[in-house]
Amino acid sequence: MGSIVVDVMLKPEILDPQGQAVGGALPRLGLHGFTDVRQGKRFVLTVDGEVTDAHLSAAREAAETLLSNPVIEDVVSVHTLDAAHDTEGTERADGQGDAQ
Amino acid sequence: MGSIVVDVMLKPEILDPQGQAVGGALPRLGLHGFTDVRQGKRFVLTVDGEVTDAHLSAAREAAETLLSNPVIEDVVSVHTLDAAHDTEGTERADGQGDAQ
């Protein structure tokens, strides 16, 4: 059973009050060093069996037509969910490696 | 200028009416083959300069305390945003490779 992840974010020029609220709350919780916060959406589409090119193609069409509003949002990513990379621990290690 | 991505999803046992609505709409748009849709949140935290371990540690704390409700939500990923991997095209290629 495969899954496809679609990430949708507001376009950079669109104000994001939710993200701003989070960004304002972080220092009050003692968490410093963040200059900006943006909030977007993450969809996980599950398919029967393995993810095929047809599934990815349908997911991309869904991302553009149903999951995002092209006037104010960008589809930033449509990709297969790799279970091994979607656990917090693994991503942490990868993330640190990618920081360079 | 680095960025950290925090992905938050509802726990599997929590009903997701938004995701169900999307899942019900897909076949009406002619997009078949999806058995389930779940909707979650994606936060992008921007930091000055490169992402350090301290930033990641603060982001993980923010993810658990402010960005998610631990009663109903899981933090599925806290990782550095790799610009090269967050474009639709690149993720597509990677995603297909990861499908195995």
Task: Describe this protein with a few key phrases.
elongated; homodimer; alpha+beta; 3 helices; 38% helix; 100 residues
Q: Strand sequence of the main sheet of chain A, in spatial order?
A: 2-1-3
- Determine Rg of chain A (CA atoms, Å): 16 Å
**Shape designation of chain A:** elongated
Low-confidence spans of chain A: 86-100
Question: How would you sum up the major sheet of chain A?
Answer: 3 strands, antiparallel
**Strand percentage of chain A:** 25-35%
Q: Name the pair of protein chains with the most residues at their interface, and give those residue counts.
A: A-B, 63 and 63 residues
Describe the structure.
The structure is a homodimer of 100-residue chains. Chain A has 100 residues and is of the alpha+beta class. Chain A has a domain at 2-13 and 42-98. Helix content of chain A is 38%, strand content 31%. The first copy, chain A, has three helices and three strands. Chain A has a three-stranded antiparallel β-sheet with strand order 2-1-3. The radius of gyration of chain A is 16 Å and the shape is elongated. Residues 86-100 of chain A have low confidence and may be disordered. Chains A and B meet through β1, α1, β2, α2 and β3 of A and β1, α1, β2, α2 and β3 of B. β2 (34-47) of chain A pairs antiparallel with β2 of chain B, so a sheet runs across the interface.
